[in-house]
Amino acid sequence: MSRPLRILVAAPASEPGHGGAEWAVMQYVLGLRRLGHDARLANWVEGSYDMVLNTSGILPQESIASIPLRVYLDLDPGFNQLWHHDGIDRHFDGHTHFVTLGKPIGHGSCPVPTLGLPWIGTLPPVVLEQWPAPYGGKTDAFTTVANFRGYGSISKDGVLYGQKVHSLRTVIGLPRRVHERFVVAMQVHPDEKKDLRALDANGWELIDPCLVAATPDAYRRFVQGSLAEIGIAKGGYVVSRCGWFSDRSACYLASGRPVVAQDTGFSEFLPTGEGLLAFCDEDHAVAAIDCLRGEYVRHSRAAREIAEEYLDSDRVLGGLLTHVGAQ
Q: Mind listing the pLDDT tens digit for each residue in 39-78?
């Protein structure tokens, strides 16, 4: 690197109860600072910058036009491309590079339209010093923080690109089958009576994310106080095989907390079987949890090792800067 870069990381204004969403973008800021750059988080442009990471294109084209490196940072692969393909402008114009969380759009069997753009695949960075392991005081519960319905689903060519609710329904009986506690920080609308009854009947414990994940610090305590993560992916990530991997799961792994996660195609480029266990249906999830419980210490150590080898912000962001020609 010839000189430190001034880098703007654009993100939506923070909302109460979204400590995890704040971490998702702060990992970029803190990680870029670790590499010696002047990185700042804002949802507006003030001053001059060498590069912008424009999360989901929230900054308008005219406001970033003077920045030499304009990187579209896609944290929601599949949905943004499908929406744009169907006529909903996702603000791709005006960017010099296109980065997506997972494997490159259009890679392999991924059916998501590339829109003619040269997508670069990346993993979520985690600043390891912020997520020390091992961490004492873990509970006896598999946990996660989730949105039951983040936004509308998409149907295209006979395929439903659904939300987390659609994936959760496929493993609804999991707590009864493994006799473990599953504590999910997730808000479900009272009108979703059928799903609420099913979650309760099958032993899913719902807690308010505004309480346990209200701030970045609270979110970190919740993650690090867990036994492991049960990672349920949006249905759209699963059917598209886009390779999306959760920034939340990265935090669990860095904290030495194993992750049992629904496979979106990430098993093609991340090691699974120890520390990170992928599943495609309820039977596979049962087997993964049985495996984890049998040798928890080994899986805990392997979880941290995966974070160090694949998700360390130095490695992820250093590679990203190289891909976009920033160093």
A: 999 989 999 999 999 999 999 999 999 999 999 999 999 8
Q: Name residue, tokens 């999910």.
A: 184
Long-range own/partner contacts, residues 45-49 (CB < 8 A, 24 or more apart): 45/8, 47/6, 48/6, 49/6, 49/7, 49/8
Which band of pLDDT confidence, cut at 50, 70 and 90, is reported for residue 195? very high
The span from the CA of 20 to the CA of 22, in Å, is 5
CA-nearest of 80, 78, 96 to 88 is 80
Cα separation, 54 vs 94, whole angstroms: 11
The answer, yes or no, to whether residue 14 has pLDDT greater than 70, is: no
Measured CA to CA, the distance from residue 324 to residue 71 in angstroms comes to: 8
Q: Could you read off the pLDDT of 125-156 as tens digits, one per residue?
A: 999 999 998 766 667 899 999 988 877 788 88
Write the secondary structure of the chain as one string of H (helix), E (strand) and C (coil).
CCCCCEEEEECCCCCCCCHHHHHHHHHHHHHHHHCCCEEEEECCCCCCCCEEEEECCCCCHHHHCCCCEEEEEECCCCHHHHHHHCCCCCCCCCCCEEEEEECCCCCCCCCCCCCCCCEEEECCCECHHHCCCCCCCCCCEEEEEEECCCCCCEEECCEEECCHHHHHHCCCCHHHHHCCEEEEEEECCCCCHHHHHHHHHCCEEEECHHHHCCCHHHHHHHHHCCCEEEECCCHHHHHHCCCCCCHHHHHHHHCCCCEEEECCCHHHCCCCCCCEEEECCHHHHHHHHHHHHHCHHHHHHHHHHHHHHHHEHHHHHHHHHHHCCCC
The token duo for 14 is: 């923070």
**71, 91 Cβ separation under 8 angstroms:** no
